[in-house]
Specification:
With 327 residues, this protein is an alpha+beta fold. The chain has three domains: 4-106, Rossmann fold (3-Layer(aba) Sandwich), CATH 3.40.50; 118-132 and 201-291, ATP-grasp fold, B domain (D-amino Acid Aminotransferase, Chain A, domain 1), CATH 3.30.470; 136-198, ATP-grasp fold, A domain (Dna Ligase, domain 1, 2-Layer Sandwich). The chain has helices at residues 17-30, 93-101, 110-116, 119-127, 147-154, 180-190, 233-237, 251-267, 301-309, 313-326, and strands spanning 4-11, 36-43, 48-51, 57-61, 66-68, 74-75, 79-82, 136-140, 158-162, 172-174, 193-198, 203-212, 215-226, 241-244, 274-281, 284-291.
């Protein structure tokens, strides 16, 4: 049997590239070598390269996403396992390029990636399907709004966040009217569009959803208990939060969260791994955001959920590659 060449594509242009390298390593280690030849491909702002078996960097040829080997031969990949968090792998840029050069890849296509990377647009689309979210105000750079108007419409506390979803950089929780302007400035450092959102008080959960062997399944519901005010970058990646899987919610609420997460996934036409964040208020899950390329390092939520669900990481990764090869 001819083994398929699979590139595990990691890195990226944002601060999350460090997490992506860890996620990529886990996937690289987990791919079944009986079936696949696995290669590490790293995409950074200033260089795209693949690592050969001696860990030597070889440049990636951007014309067709191939790699040039020592012997003058060209290495083509049957599929790319995309595990870049943030830009360009989670916002559609890489997907559109791969479509253009005819390269197969895992996960969402460029439209779903671009849509879900935009918090406002995701929530707007999903509200049409009856999926609730927190009340919010959307602003573009240069638009003026008074602090009074924000408080009148949303109350306090509020979250101020960049509209592009990547890591939790630029997000702040504001409890006092006097802190609003500083929070807005901070969010604008990360993006030209921002969301100011009513802070919901409830149970925060993170839900892993994926299409596995022909059906959309919920991998698990993890309760997030931030040691700090909210689940920020530090909490996400430096362990400053408790994660409890499965979440401590009753059966009825569990069912409601599962149904809502699956509905959101299907309504957006998603594929591959996804993680959606909800806050449950009075038994109703409110969607905060969707991640189409969630963290997949050993410490990340999705691998933890898979362990409890009883799907091995090898099967999880193999299933993604097989779907990509069939595209």
């Amino acid at each position: 049997m001819h083994k398929k060449n699979v590139a595990v594509v990691m890195g990226g242009y944002s601060d999350e590239y460090k997490v992506s390298l860890k996620s990529g390593q886990l996937i690289f280690d987990s791919l079944d070598r009986e079936i696949y030849n696995a290669y590490k491909v790293v995409i950074l702002k200033d260089e795209w390269y693949f690592l050969d078996e001696n860990d030597n960097k070889k440049p990636i040829n951007k014309a067709d996403f191939s790699a040039n080997l020592e012997n003058g031969q060209s290495l083509k990949f049957d599929a790319c396992f995309n595990i870049i968090h943030g830009t360009p792998g989670e916002n559609g840029i890489l997907q559109a390029y791969w479509d253009a050069v005819g390269q197969k890849y895992t996960g969402c296509g460029f439209y779903q990636s671009a849509l879900t990377f935009n918090k406002k647009d995701t929530l707007a689309v999903l509200s049409k399907y009856g999926i609730p979210s927190a009340k919010s105000i959307y602003l573009r750079k240069g638009e003026e709004i008074s602090d009074d108007k924000i408080v009148e419409e949303l109350g306090l506390p509020v979250f101020v966040k960049p509209n592009q979803s990547g890591s939790s950089l630029g997000i702040s929780k504001v409890k006092e009217k006097s802190e609003l302007q500083m929070a807005i400035e901070m969010a604008y450092k990360e993006d030209d569009e921002i969301l100011i959102e009513r802070a919901l008080k409830g149970i925060e959960v993170s839900v892993g959803v994926l299409d596995y062997r022909g059906e959309v399944i919920v991998l698990g519901i993890t309760e997030i208990i931030p040691d700090k005010e909210f689940f920020d970058y530090e909490a996400k990646y430096e362990g400053a939060s408790q994660e409890i899987t499965p979440a401590r919610i009753d059966d009825e609420t569990t069912k409601k969260v599962e149904e809502t997460a699956i509905k959101a996934y299907k309504s957006l036409g998603m594929s591959g791994f996804s993680r959606s964040e909800f806050i449950i208020v009075d038994g109703i899950p409110y969607l905060l955001e969707m991640n189409t390329n969630p963290g997949f390092s050993p410490a990340s939520i999705l691998p933890q959920q898979a362990k409890i669900y009883g799907i091995s990481i090898q099967d999880l990764c193999g299933s993604e590659v097989e779907k990509a090869l069939k595209k």
